[in-house]
Amino acid sequence: MKRGSIYLLFAAILFYSCVRKFDEPPAFIQPDIAATSSIKALRALHSMGGFEKINSDMIISGIVVGDDKSGNLYKQICVQDSTAGITVNLGGNNLYVDYPVGRQVFIKCKGLWLSDNNRMIELGMIDSTMPASPSLSSIPSTLLDSFLVKGNFGNTVSPKLISINQLNDSIQSMLIQIKDSVQFVASDTALTYADVSAAKASVNRTISDCNGNKAVVYTSGYANFAAVKTPSSKGIINALYFVYKTTPELIIRDTSDVKFFAARCNAAPVSISAIRSFYNGVDVLLGAMTIKGIVISNATNIAAGNMIIQDGNSGIDLYFGNSTSTSKFNVGDSVFVDVTGGTLTSYKGMLEINLPATALPTAAIATGKNIVANVVTIAQLINNISTLENTLLQINNASASGGSGTSFSGNKTLADASGSTTLYTSFTANFAGNVLPITCNNWTGYANMYNTVQFQIRNMSDVISSTGCVANKNFTATYNFTSVTTTSGTTDPTTVPTAQNVSFSAFAAVGVGSNSSAAGRFSFSGWPLGATNGSNNFTGNLSATQYYEIIITPSSGYQFDLNSLTFILQRSSTGVRQWAVRSSVDNFASNLTASINPANNLLMANSNNIFQIADRATTTAQTGCSIAFGANHKNLTVPVKLRFYGFNAETNAGTFSLNNVTVNGNTH
């Protein structure tokens, strides 16, 4: 082997032998130190109200059971051995980094002082700035390693089981668990643990066991869970035991110390029917009560935090907050819910109970429960929504249609022979993208109010093919005025549009000129004045006796829905500047909802649903005028008149012209 190769090999060996293993932290070495006394013996040196300096070489050892990680302790840790606990005042922040819960700590007590803060015994240094009034202070951060020796990590301390009426000074600073189920008193439920304002004040919330024994849960306004709301149910609580004068205080490390999942003390079972009867138009704060029911909603097809349950012939929506997931519950799960402190209210017309997230049951008490759907017609549903709301229903021989696109997602129309209603599907539903069936089906689901009645299915198995539907037919009727001439009079001679199960009248002009001013469109003069050239100030109004009119009539035994209306507008240079559309459904009292679609910078629809054209000598045809019909134009059984009012013309000779008037709707 060449000498150069030997040197290279030696250098490589030397290099790799010097590489540190950065990914291997040094193993913790337990310190060579031992306790010489117990914490109980240390505490025994103190007399309430006094100051005692430790002059002996006393060493105590314990496990950290409370640190400052959540902010509910400040410059303090609680250390506990098998005999007692002690609160130690330490300088510095983020003490949990060096002294986390579960770490063993040895404390060299010589030179430290004992005292009490309103009967709460603590260990620290003394502040003699005012000799006549000394106080206990923190061990400076620069001296922590002189007094505290860090031991191993990961030690577990089981909380001491105790009843509220057994709380006493001997368990100060220890981790305890109230062995009897406790709950926040009613006036302290669903409130934040502490003050979340800029003041960040600490707050006492009172807990009670079922025998009326009480203690307070003390929380700092700087705790990172201060804004969390207290649960309304009952359960067990782990805490550090503190006292303030004669008041027992429980200091939780974080909200995982509070495990309240059971029904409150003395909470009486109440039927959903009875709960619903409490509401009379004003929100109701519920007392100590529980309800039981079977889940009939699918978590994917309902707004976050909601769950619908049914008991007997009554159902109700439970709302646990929009950040709460109810996905662990399936259709058919039987649940037991503590509604104590909940609010019975109406949302968009639907009755619901507002509850904190902590009221969500931990699990179902049974699964696979079946509710037999109540068979109703859509007319029966609409007329009896207050009693049928949020119960399982079956609508037979119905078909779906309407809305944009062909999927379930969004608002669609469900119609049977008796009428129609909204079929709503959330975009989050696992079937939202499925093609909407337009054939005849039997539909199972539940209905409720969202300003108007809406029906929801849970999954595709809720839709079963049927053959008994009355056909739901969409129609598009267009008036194109091809036969209109300047001598054809006030009634359009063009053949009227046709559609199945509905008829349309000819277009007619009322209270204006005697003939159209142009051929191939409906254009008349003689409209109310009120506009001047070069100005957007209008002084006129529509006249109830001057309009264009069409009449839409359903065939015998059928109903119809009006969905939308579009038309082309044209005017002469001194013609109308504004126009509106009204309907006989409300006896022509209000303008129908107007918009410009597609956008047209020469047209606008104002907040009063009045169309307006720009102040220019615009005489060409303008597209974009659009009308949307609301819920009051659904399930129509009598003829409906639509009237088009032109007004604020610049001269009597100015015209108001329509073309390609298109009405969209459906019959059933």
TrEMBL record:
<dbReference type="InterPro" id="IPR043744">
    <property type="entry name" value="DUF5689"/>
</dbReference>
<dbReference type="Pfam" id="PF18942">
    <property type="entry name" value="DUF5689"/>
</dbReference>
<protein>
    <recommendedName>
        <fullName>DUF5689 domain-containing protein</fullName>
    </recommendedName>
</protein>
<feature type="domain" description="DUF5689">
    <location>
        <begin position="35"/>
        <end position="258"/>
    </location>
</feature>
<feature type="domain" description="DUF5689">
    <location>
        <begin position="270"/>
        <end position="463"/>
    </location>
</feature>
